[in-house]
Amino acid sequence: xxxxxxxxxxxxxxxxxxxxxxxxxxxxxxxxxxxxxxxxxxxxxxxxxxxxxxxxxxxxxxxxxxxxxxxxxxxxxxxxxxxxxxxxxxxxxxxxxxxxxxxxxxxxxxxxxxxxxxxxxxxxxxxxxxxxxxxxxxxxxxxxxxxxxxxxxxxx
Length: 156
Hints:
Blueprint: E1 2-7, H1 16-22, E2 27-30, H2 37-44, E3 49-51, H3 60-63, E4 68-73, E5 76-81, E6 98-100, E7 108-112, E8 115-119, E9 133-140, E10 143-150
Parallel strand pairs: 1-2, 2-3, 5-6, 6-8
Antiparallel strand pairs: 1-9, 4-5, 7-8, 9-10
């Protein structure tokens, strides 16, 4: 079994709860709007990292990130992009199994044409009463499944 931790929209805030939830990951994906290079450095201490640039990521550190990435894990191709509406390919035709995205701050998982579309939601500052979440993709015996993980955020 292989676990891929998925995080997005940290906007400069990497909560200790998010780091704990991502613990034990074999790989981590950050789907953009990182907000600070330090967040990437911290995530790399947990597991190997794949990250894309979001619309708020600026500066020289952010220019080093691509707008899209393809990650292949156990013969499963995963496409990472920040804004889903900018997807300019047909994932099923490209042989992709998963599209990871962020931007909306809304956790969502759905399957279309055999492809899992997975948004882990936002792990950064709270916004519009949306939950604070990360995600996990699990690969076992050639099958992939996703889970949204609400973070227990202490008030005050």
